[in-house]
TrEMBL record:
GO function terms (MF aspect): methylglyoxal synthase activity
InterPro entries hit by this protein: Methylgl_synth, Methylglyoxal_synth_AS, MGS-like_dom, MGS-like_dom_sf
This protein's name: Methylglyoxal synthase
Species of the source: Natronolimnohabitans innermongolicus JCM 12255
Domain MGS-like: 5-135
Lineage: Archaea, Methanobacteriati, Methanobacteriota, Stenosarchaea group, Halobacteria
Length: 135
């Protein structure tokens, strides 16, 4: 059975999900968000700066934008995991061509493991995460 860290309850009961993508995978994340727009619009969304801007402009989702990845947005999202403020993260990374300025998944992976927070790193696991949170 899929278990997901459910904090969403402390304040307003909303499920809170972070969305992050390396430059080469941003189009994939935008397509994913379009395909799951009705479900994502039910969630409180958090994203790194550029990804969040694209989600707002290209998909029309409401997003709490953090700093861009190179400026520490991924660390801000990690802090939300540490504070039990996130139910899950979708981090579409480019495992073959990640650029030095892009967020590193290592710290997020570690903090998610420590706090038992779901972290999806590809489209298949992102679908499971979004569908699992809906249940």
């Amino acid at each position: 059975m899929l278990t997901v860290n459910s904090l969403a309850n402390a304040t307003d009961g909303m499920t809170r999900v972070a969305l992050i993508a390396h430059d080469e995978t941003k189009p994939d994340l935008i397509d994913f968000a379009r395909e799951h727009e009705s479900q994502l619009s039910e969630y409180e969304l958090v994203a790194t700066g550029t990804t969040g801007k694209r989600l707002q402009e290209d998909v029309g989702l409401e997003v709490d934008r953090k700093q861009s990845g190179p400026l520490g947005g991924d660390l801000q999202i990690g802090a939300e995991v540490a504070d039990d403020r996130l139910d899950g993260i979708v981090f579409l990374r480019d495992p073959l061509r990640a650029q030095p300025h892009e967020p590193d998944i290592s710290a997020l992976l570690r903090i998610c493991d420590v706090h038992d927070t779901a972290l999806a790193t590809n489209l298949a696991s992102a679908t499971f995460l979004i569908e699992g949170l809906a249940e």
